[in-house]
Amino acid sequence: MVKIGSHVSMSGDDMYLGSVKEALSYDANAFMVYTGAPQNTIRKKISDLRIDEAVHLMEEMGLSFDNVIVHAPYIINLANPDPEKREFAISFLTEEVKRSAAMHAKQIVLHPGSAVGGDRELATKWIAEGVKKVILNTKDLPVKIALETMAGKGNEIGKTFEELKAIIDLVDEPNRISVCFDTCHTHDAGYEVKTDFDGVMKHFDEVVGSKYISVFHVNDSKNEKGAAKDRHENFGFGYLGFDSLLKVIYHPDFLDIPKILETPYVEGNPPYKEEIVMIREKSFDPNLVEKLKNK
């Protein structure tokens, strides 16, 4: 069975229990969550997250911990040229990994960072050093740090497979580092995901190694290939299209890898349950967005 789910929230009184309930409401068998707002460092204590209740519900409903993904906050930049800010990023990511482990998640997705000063080689080195320190700080925790493929806006590191490979080689911890392959990002970075996904995967395997892919973000894009803008579109409604995204999800080499939707809300309505139905039935509904608008 395809492992498919979406980003879900973690807030209010239910916290992590609410995340599991939301995923179940979408008929998902995977999900991704932030441990707090992605734009800040405010976090509730682990003891307040209602983890035991969430775990009990997951076990009761047959949701596998292997399909739980945590996403690190956007504010972490391991490539910041300010040493104090880099140390803060390392410290905060360390705590996020600890929280992920407490939530029984097996991986945390990380935007590698931005070369603020424009020196991409130095930024790559700092990112690798930071990840290595986080791994050392959490050496007994079975949580992988999944470097996300990036769209290439600004000075983002990770827009090429070669940059990800450079970080992975410098970290040299194959059991603790992996890759999150984002379809929108790689398309926006200039890779031919739409018409030659097999070719893209062959190239990725030659440069990085397909074994490093631990999760997919399956998002359509509002932009043409190579736009470097990172603007997600609803599943099948963008420049990638339904058939090409379906090929990613059902690719025989990656059936056991969880796929996560980060598609936009439609005027306040989460589209995930309906998108998951389309994916499982392999049938595109061109009226989905309008239906959600009128829901």
Order of helices and strands: EHEHEHEEHEEHEHHEEEHEHH
**How many E strands?**
12
Structural class: alpha/beta
Distance between the terminal alpha carbons, to the nearest Å?
A: 29 Å
- CA-based shape: globular
Radius of gyration: 18 Å
The largest beta-sheet arranges its strands as 1-2-3-4-6-8-9-12
Mean pLDDT: 96
- Assign a percent range to the helix content: 25-40%
Biggest sheet architecture: 8 strands, parallel, barrel
Number of helices: 10
Strand content: 5-15%
What are the low-pLDDT stretches, counting only 5+ consecutive residues below 50?
A: none
Give your account of this protein's structure.
- The protein has 295 residues and is α/β, with parallel strands linked by helices.
- The protein has helices at residues 15-25, 51-61, 83-102, 120-137, 161-171, 183-188, 197-207, 242-249, 272-281, 288-293, and strands at residues 4-7, 30-33, 68-71, 107-110, 113-114, 144-148, 156-157, 177-182, 213-217, 220-221, 232-233, 259-261.
- Helix 3 crosses helix 4 (120-137) and helix 4 packs across helix 5.
- The longest helix is centred in the first third of the chain and has 20 residues, at 83-102.
